[in-house]
Each structure stands twice: as C-alpha cells, then as structure tokens.
Amino acid sequence: MTDRAYVGDELDVFAHATRWKRYVATLLRPYIRGSVLEVGAGIGSTTRVYHNESVTRWVCLEPDGALARRIAADPPGVTVRVGTLADLEAEAGRFDTILYADVLEHIRDDLMELSRAVRLLRPQGCIAVVAPAHRFLFSPFDRAIGHYRRYDRGTLRAIAPGGVVEERIAYLDSAGMLASILNRLLLHSSRPTLSQILLWDRALVPVSVLLDRLLRYGVGKSIVAVWRRPAETMP
Prior knowledge:
- The protein is α/β, with parallel strands linked by helices.
- The N and C termini lie far apart (about 35 Å).
- It has helices at about 10-15, 20-30, 45-50, 65-70, 110-120, 140-145, 155-160, 175-185, 195-215; strands at about 35-40, 55-60, 80, 95-100, 120-130, 165-170, 220-230.
C-alpha cells in the first residue's frame, strides 16, 4: 500500500464548486457506469456528484491516507482504498470506468499511469480525464498544488495509451477561461479564495454551460478526454 501526503490545500475550497461538478458529471454520465475506479479521489467531493444509478460499484483510490479517511462511504457501494494504481494489479480487467478528475496533471509520468489504467479496464470500458487546459494559463497556483502540466488536445492525444480509441476530447468553461486570462493580466491573484470560487461557480459556470455548446466545446480553461477500450475480437 502506498501512502503519500498531498501537497495542495485547495480541496475544501473547490468542494464548493457544485455547479461546475454537476456540469462535468452531466457530460461524462454516458461513460460512468458499472464498476468505477476514481483515481485520486481526494476528500470525496467529486464522488458524490458523479455517482449515478448506472454505477454498481465505486472504488475511491487515494494515495494520501489522511484525505482518504475523510471520504464518506456514501452513496452505497463506495469503498475507499489508500494507494495508487500500482497497488491494484489484482483488479486487472475489473473496471468499466476509470476516472481522473483534476488528478492526471499531478502525476509525473502520465503516460505510464494511463498505460496501467488500460490493464484494469474491461472491454468497452472507458478512461475519463478532466484536467486544467492550456500551458499559457500555468500559474504559481498550479505549481503550489503540485501540477506538473496543463493539457490541450495535442498533449492528451500524445499520451493516449495503446489499446484504446478516442471517444471525445472537449474544452469546457469558456467563461472561466476569460476570467483566468483577465486575472493573469490585471489581478495577478496567486490562488483563488472561497468567495472567488463561489462567484465563478454561481455566475460564470451557468454562462459556460450555454456558451460552451455554442462554441462547440472548442474553448475553455478545462479539458475533458474519454478513451474506450474496444471489445476484444474473437480469435
């Protein structure tokens, strides 16, 4: 079992971004089903929102034992494991969905991570990634909470592991992207406060829900990628 302390302190603040979490959960809903593995589950704030009636089992995998102990075993069927994918070799081929919600950017070797994830997928299973977008938006806040990178379509496609096909790559939160650019140019705020998170979640996320669709999910400060493991062909 691997127990690693998380360097960030933003999880409690971002737990208040409920509209944002519901928005992303709605877009990912077709891919979140059956047996789900959530990698880097943190304090479980994403678990409660993304869980749906198509889920039969949900494993929260969190390398920081202190954070893992804060995850509630709710909804029913949620279990918590302390560790990383390297600790789950016995689970090969057992998951229908493997979810990385604002986690992959924290992992130094993201290509190796996704290659391990594929081995845990059942045929027709999906890997779903939600991550911060655009290198030019990388900030001191990213660095402070342990981000190695931000992504775009090209960098995500470059780390797509063998054995999967791309289902979807989309940018989200176009209104939030404009706010991030203005912050870099004018405010120079190094980390968001609770009041800023609530303002973004309540005022800008509803605008992004409408604007993202009009922009055909081509602009945003976050990016979502989904890959599917094809059905195994008969010999």
